[in-house]
Design brief:
With 679 residues, the protein is an alpha+beta fold. It has two domains: 450 residues, Alpha/alpha barrel (Glycosyltransferase); 181 residues, Orthogonal Bundle (Type 1 dockerin domain), CATH 1.10.1330. The protein has 23 helices and twelve strands. The strands form three sheets. A five-stranded mixed β-sheet has the order 7-6-9-11-12, with no helix packed on it. A hairpin with a 2-residue loop joins strand 6 and strand 7. The longest helix has 25 residues. It is globular.
């Protein structure tokens, strides 16, 4: 098979990190060396934990998205929706896909500053954006925005698991491997809704919110699970619906969502269980507590787990024990983050549990691949193993399960292996990828490691990211910058704002206004009173289409607000204008020209919209017009520029001409539509 889109950049071997302290674990027979194990290097652990997802991208474009050099496009064709493989296989399971995405979104919501501080936000955003894209691709909406069908699983269990080979060699999925529903799988739909609502909250994509609302309505209406071809089994749909409702309340502030979230997440803790793909009551209760202040149920349940597992490794299930352990840490640290309100601090317990996972245990083994010198080396993962098994399975039967015996095998950096079958780590089979019980790796396993690492780093603040992760990994530039003591570059843009008299177009002063981000309207970014100069503010948006809201207090009816330079929504007297996509302001050079007035006699000499005379029409031209209107002497426009700028269909250059250019930049108009016809 011809390999496309390979990442060619190769980095050198893993760099050693700073010496860290060690907290010994009661009952552990192994006395760890902190320098070798890096037990509290939580920054590096968070960084590594995200790279597993690079190994599990699916579909066309995988080769350009992944940061592992050995992954490439797979499962292409008309059934390609993107997304991520569930585990070490090639299927996409909606239940774990949704659970993983909604847990990742939760973690960024809780620990945004810590992701920013470690330079891992860009990596996290790439992953959650891909999850969101997949979920939208899988969902069919009618003309009224209602879900008519959605795909809840891709890939046939028997067919997929009957082969052991890299996804690139698995071929295209046929129609029989696509599982969809018109009225079921409400648990999956609700998980998708939660993840999409979070992606809107975190990064501001309006389309994500649209799909989140539609999928929630679908789930709440049908309230049933679909069991056909489900790789994993769920316990109910009500917990998933409550989970999604909590996030939609945070996204919209609409009371019915909070009512739905509160219905079964307050009161006693009788209904609470561990947080994993098969039950998210605990997560729903924590979000409800963050909203309402009622922490009783989640705190009581987590405390019961901690009390029963003070001096031993917490095992909820013998298959994938580390998954449940890290997911419990994830929830416990989220509660601890709000300890002033919750009254609970589980940080010491989580730290001890993580110490054991990283190697401070009786078997001297770390469950995180590639993290330290005693890390597991042979995860149950087809692509990483590089083993090709034909239909006779003779290669499998003769294989000892050790990656070292397979030429060309790869290090699956950051992957969390399933773990021991009991609190005794000697039950973990470090060198046997054939043992799925111990060495399974999966999306939902991994997200527990991300959550626990983020929570521990946020609380303790220890460790540092690294600039190099082996020769087959391209490290994110933001992480390299942080590792080198630099500040990662921010996606910044400048907003210019003026207030003008509608009739004359003249700039007016004395208007009070404030700027907020739509996804966090309680947080004021700036406040100002307009003067005769444009108000200018530099903002650092989370993504390229983050909308901002300019809130204007008591704007007189004869005045209008004009803004350019970033994605904004104007609110004036209850009248909303369209959001303008974020476009970083281009640097413009103001030159002093000595010109002789020349009459433009042909259309060829006019470039409508090009107010700054750079031979193109961009948001910079809107800025140039606003500057001219605010102070024509300082920001003079030449005769040619004035003719180019007069495009709204009405004579004279006003703020409306700048608004037209903003709509060109947003794709509402094309340059060829200019000038507009008079109204």
């Amino acid at each position: 098979m011809k390999m496309k889109g390979k990442l060619t950049k190769k980095l050198t071997a893993l760099a050693a990190s700073a010496v860290m302290g060690v907290t010994s674990v009661a009952g552990s027979a192994f006395t760890a060396n902190a320098a070798d194990l890096e037990l509290d290097n939580y920054a590096k652990l968070l960084q590594y934990s995200l790279y597993f997802y690079d190994a599990n991208y699916c579909g066309e474009g995988t080769g350009s998205k992944t940061h592992f050099s050995w992954r490439d496009d797979c499962h292409t064709g008309h059934n390609d929706m993107g997304g991520f493989h569930d585990a070490g296989d090639g299927i996409i399971c909606g239940l774990t896909e949704g659970f993983t995405a909604s847990t990742l979104g939760w973690m960024y919501y809780e620990y945004k500053e810590d992701f920013d501080k470690t330079g891992t936000t860009a990596h996290l955003k790439d992953i959650t954006d891909e999850f969101a894209r997949y979920m939208r691709n899988c969902t069919t909406l009618d003309g009224n925005g209602n879900v008519t069908k959605f795909i809840y699983e891709m890939g046939d269990d028997g067919k997929d698991h009957g082969k052991w080979r890299a996804p690139e060699l698995m071929g295209e999925r046929d129609d029989s491997e696509i599982y969809s529903t018109t009225d079921g799988a409400s648990d999956v739909a609700a998980q998708y809704a939660a993840a999409l609502a979070q992606n809107y909250i975190n990064f501001g994509n309006e389309e994500d919110l649209q799909y989140a609302k539609a999928l929630y309505d679908f789930a709440a209406k049908n309230r049933k699970m679909t069991y056909d071809q489900m790789t994993y089994s769920d316990k109910s749909v009500e917990d998933d619906i409550a989970w999604a409702a909590g996030w939609l309340y945070i996204a919209t502030g609409e009371q019915p969502y909070l009512d739905a979230n509160s219905k079964d997440t307050s009161g006693t803790n009788d209904w609470v269980n561990d947080y994993y793909y098969g039950g998210v009551w605990l997560g729903a209760a924590i979000i409800n507590a963050e909203i309402t202040g009622n922490w009783t149920a989640p705190v009581n349940y987590i405390q019961s787990v901690v009390n029963s597992n003070q001096n031993k490794f917490y095992v909820m299930n013998s298959w994938g024990s580390a998954r449940h352990n890290t997911l419990m840490q994830t929830c416990a640290m989220a509660v601890t983050k709000h300890k002033d309100e919750s009254g609970a601090d589980f940080s010491e317990w989580c730290q001890k549990q993580m110490n054991m996972i990283l190697g401070d245990n009786n078997a001297n083994v770390c469950l995180v691949v590639g993290y330290n010198d005693v890390s597991a080396t042979s995860p149950h993962h087809r692509a990483a193993s590089a083993l090709y098994v034909d239909d006779s399975w003779s290669q499998w039967n003769s294989w000892n399960g050790d990656y070292a015996s397979v030429e060309g095998s790869h290090t699956l950096y950051g992957a969390l292996c399933g773990g021991p079958t009991s609190e005794d780590f000697s039950t973990f089979r470090k060198l046997d990828a054939k043992d799925a019980t111990s060495n399974e790796v999966a999306l939902d396993y991994q997200v527990g490691l991300v959550g626990a690492a983020a929570g521990l780093y946020s609380y303790f603040g220890t460790g540092s990211v690294v600039a190099e992760i082996g020769g087959e990994v391209t490290v994110y530039p933001e992480e390299i910058a942080v590792a080198n003591g630099e500040t990662p570059a921010k996606n910044t843009a400048t907003i210019y704002v003026t207030f003008n008299d509608i009739k004359t177009g003249e700039n007016v002063s004395g208007v009070e206004a404030s700027l907020v981000m739509i996804t966090d309207p309680e947080k004021t970014i700036a406040e100002w009173t307009s003067t005769n100069e444009p108000y200018e503010i530099e903002v650092s948006p989370n993504r390229e289409d983050t909308p901002y809201r300019i809130v204007i207090n008591n704007l007189p009816a004869e005045y209008e607000c004009n803004a350019a330079g970033a994605g904004i929504v104007l609110e004036a007297g209850g009248v909303w204008q369209e959001a303008v996509p974020l476009t970083p302001i281009e640097e413009t050079t103001t030159t002093t020209e000595t010109t002789t007035t020349t009459e433009l006699t042909t259309e060829k000499e006019i470039t409508y919209g090009d107010a700054n005379l750079d031979d193109k029409v961009t948001i910079s031209d809107a800025v140039r017009i606003l500057q001219y209107l605010a102070n024509g002497e300082k920001y003079e426009l030449s005769d040619k520029a004035l003719i180019n700028a007069d495009i709204d269909g009405n004579p004279g250059v006003t703020g409306k001409d700048a608004a037209v250019i903003q709509k060109v930049d947003a794709g509402i108009y094309k340059v060829g539509d200019l000038p507009l016809k008079a109204e």
